[in-house]
Amino acid sequence: MSFRLFIYYCALCGGAGAFGGWALGRWLARSPGVFNSGLKGLFLGLGIALLLGLLDALWVYSLRRVFAVFSRVLLAVVIGSAGGLLGGIVGQLLVNQWNKDYLLVAGWVLTGLLIGVSLGVFDLLAALARNQETRGPMRKTLNGLIGGAFGGILGGVIYVLADGRLKAFFESKPYDALWTPSSWGFVILGMCIGLLIGLAQVILKEAWLKVEAGFRPGREQILSKQVITIGRAERCDIGLFGDAQVEKVHCKIVRKGDDYILTDEGTASGTYVNDERVDGPRTLRSGDRIRLGRCVLRFGERAKRR
User: Fold this and answer.
1) Residues 174-204: pLDDT tens digits?
2) Which residue pairs from 238-245 have beta carbons closer than 8 angstroms and sit at least 24 positions apart in sequence?
């Protein structure tokens, strides 16, 4: 998918996950108190992390890689749920101590922060297990942390303001219990967390590829791993299916320091950069046009500081 769609879906998944978490919390944690606030926060974090983790996993992998998708989502859910639990408890403790509703924001910041981190932890652990460079996964984790924290601040502030305003509005009107002020507040909170996480990942990205021709043109992929494989095999990071001239593993992009180096895997049809055949390692520059078979990719990179 494109970066624009990714941001849009992040916001939708955040809102939908938050509403699902609110519904579970309303059903299972009806009594007031610190523990029940933590339980509601847990379901909030679970719902948002589940949908955002699934979206991120499907952006990285195809649906056929069930185990890889499941592993990423499961880890995101565990971390996101823990963030929601801690956020709900911390926020309620602060409110009980000083009797100020706006202190709930601190709890939601913690929740958003850990949900954002959850999207990059799998890649970070995988890089450590393979003894690979961790700079890319660390960057993704940090971007998620930044986006989640700011999403928690924005969503938390709107949540507190909306909760007070909507209570005053609904008190004088009959309404369906499902659509209470807190449900709207949770949806707004979830949408803000999802939106800011998606924005941070896209705006703060370092390098990316865009498919200009071939399988699913318009697709964009952030390069957050040390080694990116390109080909028509299911295990490839960027799959280019339906082109017989593209080998199962056609070429690789390896990050070395600040450089991204393209190498062809000894294919018969070859790999071309700006219409020049790649005979050995080729350092990519922003705007380079990579062609393999009938597929064309465009490499993009943030300007480096010299």
Assistant:
1) 443 334 446 777 888 899 999 999 999 999 8
2) 238/209, 238/211, 238/297, 239/62, 239/215, 240/211, 240/214, 240/215, 240/292, 240/293, 240/295, 241/215, 242/214, 242/215, 243/214, 243/215, 243/293, 243/294, 243/295, 244/293, 245/269, 245/292, 245/293, 245/294
